[in-house]
Amino acid sequence: METLNVQLAERTYPIHIGQGLLERADLMTFALRQRRVAVVTNDVVAPLYLRRFTDSLDAAGITSVKIILPDGEGNKNWQTLNRIFDELLTQHCERSTALVALGGGVTGDMAGFAAACYQRGMPFIQVPTTLLAQVDSSVGGKTAINHPRGKNMIGAFYQPSLVLADTDTLKTLPDRELRSGLAEIVKYGLIRDLPFLEWLEAHLERLLRREPDALEYAIYRSCSNKAEIVGADERETGERALLNLGHTFAHAIETGAGYGVWLHGEAVSAGCLMAAELSCRMGLMSADDAQRIEALFSRAGTPVLGPKELPPERYLDLMRNDKKVENGKIRLVLLKKPGDAFVCDYAPPSEIAQAIASRTGGAFPAVPEAPDSR
Ligand code: NAD
Ligand code: GLY
Predict the structure, then answer these.
(1) Most exposed among 75, 158, 280, 287, judged by the fewest C-beta atoms under 10 Å?
(2) Whole-structure pTM over 0.70, yes or no?
(3) pLDDT in tens, 87-109
């Protein structure tokens, strides 16, 4: 097991990464104020892992309330959030009962928001089971639900007190979900970690084959990048915005296409390439660098074009609701080169629209199968 910390003074918390951690509920006890927790999961993850996890809780002397939500990005909304509150109240959960999210980013984001709100805040623990959640969403305290007009528009910053990432759970992850997680991993290389990007270029197929040591390294390196950024800028007043490379485009794709049609990482992949295209058009980055980035996403098998159904004007409309907009100005993360990103508030809308147009035309699903060596 590898451990690193998100340094936030008295709210500093550990991220444990390794195999067999679902069986290590004992690692949670330091974060508990009572020996009863509520576990939020969904109807896909529950049959796979809930029993294993609650057996481990039992063995550590911790009882659990189980809250099983319907799966899917399309259910990341008020109605589902309210089911968590209903269950917490019905089961007489208290302010000091910890809420544990067992699942992917959708579960983690919703459970985290519920934990931030229930009785004005209860302890929260992340047990991420997708690659995307292990490298990104479980770390850093962003919690949210979607609004029909915008992705992750309603939420709160609320840090977990522990992240327990069991890499064994990735064995059951569908290929498409694995690739979606890879897109967020590539993002760290692009924004600030060129040596990691080079490592990914050299070892991507090992990740696609789910080699445990390669996955563990990529998760650790991603989390250490994220932990550093969050430790320096928890509330995204500066550097943390870089983690949104491609996301302004991506959120427009996810909202515009309908939640769940494009996976988050798929939209991030197309979005990063739109950001790269715009960076080239504005003379900030070379075309060779943009091609290098496209080559890596292609190998990861994530989309290199946005959906053909979504015109640039619709993106721009949706992008005006982005959380980085300030005084009506769209702010985008652009690239000077791979490993060097910055926040740009001067991209002309006409250039943004052209960059989108030249990166549009993708059909979905269009993802090739992973190399068949598992
Ligand atoms: P997800 O939670 O929908 O999980 C993907 C699918 O895999 C689901 O069907 C899920 O039930 C299933 N699943 C989960 N674990 C599994 C396992 N071990 N084996 C088999 N199936 C499994 O999606 P995701 O990609 O994990 O997360 C995407 C969400 O995360 C989006 O809503 C996005 O906005 C959010 N996000 C949040 C942050 C943040 O900082 N809070 C960062 C990135 C993304
Ligand atoms: N995923 C972006 C962030 O956590 O800031």
Answers:
(1) 287
(2) yes
(3) 999 999 999 999 999 999 999 99
